[in-house]
Records
---
Amino acid sequence: MIPSRQLLASILFDAGEMHPLRRNVGFYTERGGTIGWLLTKDHLVVVDTQFKPQAENLLSILRETNDKPLDLLVNTHHHRDHTSGNIAFKGIVKTHVAHQNSYNNQKRVAEARDNLANELLPDTTFEGEKWSAKVGDENITLHYAGPAHTNGDVMVHFENANIVHMGDLMFNRRFPYIDKSAGAHIGNWVKVLQKARSMFDDETIFIFGHADNGYPVKGGKEDLTAFENYLSNLLEFMNKAVKEGKTLDELKASVTEIPGAPEWKGDGISRSLDAAWMEIVEGK
Ligand SMILES: [Zn+2]
């Protein structure tokens, strides 16, 4: 039996959630890094793609409104929980863009996993600070400010909606993944967040890659400040611990929160400690 369109939509809708924000731009959550979208009957933009089943669910929902090719697909960075669903859009994307480093990382990781055939790599890359496109009545600008969560993270600004998808430059009240294997840098990450706060205004809505349970995957500048505070406190804490002669194992066995940033919790503080240690002690 073929399910009715409504039943199908409700099944799909249960699978994930569409969250409209402003001026036809919103976000979708199911499993993996938060997806951003712009949806009108004439235009379609998707930012990040989670995994293949989730991207297929999203596409079915988008198709209720728009059956045209995607004007633009953006990957904020290469991690699999943001790019594995790219393949669901194969053949129906006019432009698929990421920073050159993100492209290189995605290709390198896919080759190492012998999985290149199942990946959709961007067809367009850039290496400067900015890349822009006009889609309908919206201007979309990608901003790159150097290594942070990886060496290829971009902020995606829907300028007229005044919404910025931060990708994994933002972990809301959740210990971040800091991918040193892909050129992450905590010190510069702090600067990237400072730059974001100076570039965007108090009305800007930010979409976050991840949040801890009970916290939203969107917010404002105050949330960027709070995360910037977490990262700078992490570096300060590690500098002090190293001067006191502590070992990484000792720290990992005893530390449950970073002094000065008690809101950051959950599993995974060891990733922060590992990364800060590498940066401060090993200069990586
Ligand atoms: Zn990531």
Note: The chain has a mean pLDDT of 94.
---
Amino acid sequence: MKKLDISKLDVLAMMQFDACTRCGECTATCPTGGEAQDVELVTPRGKILKLRDFYRRQYGLRAKILGPKEIPEEELKELTSRAYECTICGQCRAVCPAHLDTIPMWENMREFLVANGLAPLPAHESIIKSVENYGNPWMQPRVQRSRWAKRLDKEVKIKDVLKESCEVLYFVGCTAAYDPNIRDMAINTAKVLAKAKVDFGTLGNEEACCGSTLLRTGLVEEARKTANKNIAMFEEAAPSLIVTSCAGCYKTLKQDYPKIGKVDARIAHITEYVLELIDSGRLKLDGRVDGRVTFHDPCHLGRHNKLYDQPRRILESIPGLELVEMERNREDARCCGAGGGVKTAFPDLAQKISSMRVEDAERTGAAILTTSCPFCYQSLKATIEAKGSKLRMMDIMELVAIAADAA
Ligand code: SF4
Ligand code: SF4
């Protein structure tokens, strides 16, 4: 009989399983649970109880006396599938009265499933191979990573941080670098940094995937490999600050890299840094952008990192722009549906969640929906188009670039 290998299960996470009071607060708020109310296993409570049950059947007191009980293949497969339907949005952590730190629990659960040969899901295999072979999850050639910068005017000078020292390293991230619909995020970021006369550069074609996608799908060893490439280059370039466009890169560099290697530089999301530039007077937002805007909090920026005020203060600094909040905002913001590998493995589910978020935005009466993460942008924009919504999706750096007369 195959016994589950529990060596990858975090002891603290295991102790937390016992703290779950089964109150069900999380089931009411989970975006995937909300989509499948009839399937208890998709909810946080369901997954916790199932894993706890597996553990007891094989390692509990009864198992020690009478021998471990086999867990049928179908049950293992079902837990695996349900574990990967989670966007790791962190909403369950925000509402849990027992204060269970669910985000690392879900990531650890996936690591455990990978260790037992139950994961990754077939849909995620191509991402793993792509990061390994191309240094990005989008199967794009390494030599085209910095191609986005070709659209910039000659006045915008981007240094090669591996050849010249500079104050700020702009970590572009795979999606902003490669996705033709998202490249403007990188272009506008570079324009805004240049406008504020920031001495900045990038790793160019040498930049590797941050590893976020791998970490969130439980592929910790594979993530370490790509992270270590970046960490070695950070050390060589030795910037004092690293800024990211992507909320996922931000979380990975800020929270995960210190567990993998040594990063001396301060890590900031672009919204944090741009606000500092505005506050210090280095960046002036004098241009008007008339209209009502609503802001979607990316989970990796908001609930995962408590970064709520910076993007809002930037939007409030833009003349003519009126910020209106969605009913669910900040810690209570609904997920866009794309995180945790859900969009790749369960596109219909991702679309349904994203649809609910677009409807949240529509109810505000805003003309513009903005955010500060390429994944959220991609997911919400696709839904706006599919629904034929009147909302206009704009990246926050596009609004800043217009207001700074840098666009
Ligand atoms: S992290 Fe989000 S999607 Fe995952 S179980 Fe918690 S509330 Fe549901
Ligand atoms: S909210 Fe927390 S304690 Fe309540 S069922 Fe969910 S995980 Fe368990």
Note: The chain has a mean pLDDT of 93.
